[in-house]
Amino acid sequence: MGAIGPTAHAAWGLIGSGLGIAISILHVACIPLVLARRREPAETLAWLLGLLLLPALGVILFWIFGRGTVRRTARPRQRLLEDRRESAVPADLETVDPRSRPLARAAWQAAMAPLRAGNEVVVLVNAEEAYPAKLAAIAAAQSTIDVAYYVFRTDATGRHFRDAMIAAARRGVRVRLLLDAVGAEWFSGRFFRPLREAGAKVRYFLPISPIRAWTLNLRNHRKILAVDRRIGFTGGINIGDEYLGKSRLGLWRDVHVRIEGPAAADLATVFEDDWAYTVGSVPEAEASLPEPAGQSLVQILPSGPEDRGQGIYQIYFAALASARRTIDLTTPYFIPDRAIAVALMSAAMRGVRVRLLVPGRNNQRLVALAARSYFDELLDAGVEIFGYSPGMIHAKTVIIDESWASVGTANMDVRSFRLNFEVNGLIYGGPAVLRLAEIFEGDLAVSRRLDPEQFRRRSIWNRAAEGGARLLSPIL
Known about the structure:
Elements: H1 6-36, H2 41-53, H3 55-66, H4 77-85, H5 101-111, E1 115-125, H6 126-140, E2 144-149, H7 156-170, E3 174-180, H8 193-197, E4 201-205, E5 224-227, E6 231-235, E7 251-253, E8 255-260, H9 262-279, E9 296-303, H10 311-322, E10 326-330, E11 334-335, H11 338-349, E12 353-359, H12 365-372, H13 375-381, E13 384-388, E14 391-393, E15 397-400, E16 404-408, E17 412-413, H14 414-419, E18 422-428, H15 431-445, E19 447-449, H16 452-456, H17 460-471
Parallel strand pairs: 2-3, 3-4, 7-14, 10-12, 11-17, 12-13
Antiparallel strand pairs: 1-8, 1-9, 2-5, 5-6, 6-8, 9-18, 10-15, 13-19, 15-16, 16-18
């Protein structure tokens, strides 16, 4: 191979100089972006140090992981929120238990989440109960089926749901499927081709591109099935064989809710919001609410990186702070920020029985290590921590004083609070809350309580691994 001539050397020199100048410009431009985010001082300092010490790598990492917002310019959730702000909190607020009334008002203020009366709420345990109920709703659909999932496998379970939607589309039902571009399996387009050919519409939320690499960190983690704006499902269960226990972790414990009534229309509105943003259209106007179907009071509370109010985060904090007797919390991924950790410790210290249920075996090793780094101070404050033994627990529930509950897609972690698009159902009293409390007690019966003294004796190497994982907590 011949030597590189002077001209080639000069060309490469110009390219190198150009890249250096570009990196310097981006480096300088990123600093005000970091400061403008107004995050916790420690997080801001970490990004600044990264940019100063590792200019090129720091710019790349900040571009992908540091931008925690997305603007929905194609649509307008803002218009929906402004329309709702013109009305007061529904009169149903007066029917809420006075102890939970501040939570209903806070959810309205944070995310304009209407409080709906007249709902039937059925708690569904595991995919064995959730899947048949969902497939039955799809089979009975008359006008619309709106489906959004973070994970939709192309396995046997995925085929069952795909084929059910194909049958609905062929009989004239409008079917729309929205998949997260990261959570969906690669090359799933071929799998969904028969669904498209049947007349359904399939889209991917925030596709990844080099120009918008920062969207890699902002994912649609919602699980929504809305049928005829009258029946809705949400919770922790995605579509896939592993949710039926067909994975290395065995049993997959999860919780979903089936909501029939006015609140189901709010789930459909959350889907419409995401769909309109994805396809670049104006969302359909909110239609009239369906007839009452039960006695439960429900609020559908969405949150995402475009919402300054961080509704789910605020409601979690308010619920923990308002508890008088009990806090029963189930989450697979526990990485709280300082405020949530202090709220849990403060509740335990003032005499509230606080019980935290996490997986005994977690499918996310780094998350499990980061979670354990918080256990020392929680145990010292009197929080009881349990590890679920039979398999992987993936439920995301909060139960306060057995009178209020949250069931949905949000984990008790920084990612769900700030980066993911999530949706939770808030339930005010009634049989559904009692059923969730009963399920929680059943899960504790097959879980192992963490012994504080034994936990404190773990090795320095374990502590170091936990501390290292905790450093990554903002992006886990």
